[in-house]
Description:
Layout: E1 5-9, H1 18-24, E2 32-35, E3 45-49, E4 61-64, H2 74-80, E5 83-85, H3 92-108, H4 110-117, E6 137-141, H5 145-156, E7 160-164, E8 176-178, H6 183-187, E9 192-195, H7 209-214, E10 220-223, H8 232-241, E11 246-249, E12 269-271, H9 282-299
Parallel strand pairs: 1-2, 1-3, 3-4, 4-5, 6-7, 6-9, 7-8, 9-10, 10-11, 11-12
Helix pairs in contact: 1-9, 3-5
Amino acid sequence: MDLDRLAVHESVGKVMPPQLLVDALEDTGIPVELVDDDEQFGPGDVVVTFGHRDTFLDADWVHGVRSGYDEFPVGVYDEAGTVFTNSTGIHGTTIGETVAGYMLSFARRLHTYRDVQFDHEWRRPSYDESFTLQNERLCVVGLGTLGRGIADRAAALGMDVVGVRRSGDPVENVSVVYTPDQLHTAIEDARFVALATPLTRETEGMFAAPEFETMREDAYLINVSRGEVADESDLVSALRDGAIAGAALDVFTKEPLPEDSPLWDFDEVLLTPHVSPATGKYHEDIAGLVSENVSNVRAGDSMMNRIV
């Protein structure tokens, strides 16, 4: 593969200032340009993008700046002979810290104090309202980069971490690893359940009414994977019925979350606008991945994170 141009598509602006990424890629030795939807592509082009455009199929290589690639028609890329890579492997720290923050907020009731702060209200919790994370069980569903980042930080907080993984193979800082057919066993004793699995045919809707009924009434759901992994309607019902205690959600079936969604109005629901991977150095992380793959191509080595 000849690499003649790095084209940074303007859509990366959804997660970073595009010019920062352009500047960070200049050390590759390949001309870098910021392009828009009117740009045309051809052999020798590498496109770095947030989302898919059909015109990208004429390039030699497309790199998605997200770890998930469910919105990219990878089969079409394969048919077109266009290499597609993604950005998995760089979000373990950011998402792990975000999930730790969610759990600490629920346990130490931080969100409730913030809620009443604007009313200048001095509110102390009821005696049995607060708890600590130490010795509480967390079940992490999906033990890839995201799940491991969550597990490592939860273990450091003294939590009992179990997980669900397709292979069932052991993972550091996870005391028990279950397979997907053992999901209900994995979640039934957990105070927190964190969804960190990619969106696939198998995981779409994997968390619905039966799973919420299996969870403890004082348990919290955390979703940092994709909105479609959890049935939002069933989640709302579970929250209203008290089947679970609350939820922290960074991803939704429809984004931005519609103004009329019932999820806005629950005291024990934390909503963040799909920002769990956010960091002011994200452009450096992406540039590092692309630069390493540029080196791999030049050396004739296998590319990292190659999907097709």
